[in-house]
Amino acid sequence: QEEVKKMLLIKEVNGSKIYAKSGWGMGVTPQVGWLTGWVEQANGKKIPFSL
Hints:
Helices cover 14% and strands 57% of the residues. It is mainly beta. It has one domain. A four-stranded antiparallel beta sheet has the order 1-2-3-4. Strand 3 (32-40) and strand 4 form a beta hairpin. It comes from Acinetobacter baumannii. InterPro entries: Beta-lactam/transpept-like (IPR012338). This is Beta-lactamase OXA-24-like protein.
C-alpha cells in the first residue's frame, strides 16, 4: 500500500499532500475524464475528492 501511495502523490504544499489518479473514458460519447483522490493535511486530516 505504501508503494501505491508514493505513486499517487502529485503535489505537496505547506505540509499538505495531494494524492490522485486520473482516468479517461473513451467508450462513451462525449468522452469523459476524471481525477479522484484525497488530500492529507499537515494535521493528519484526510479529505477525499473527485472531479
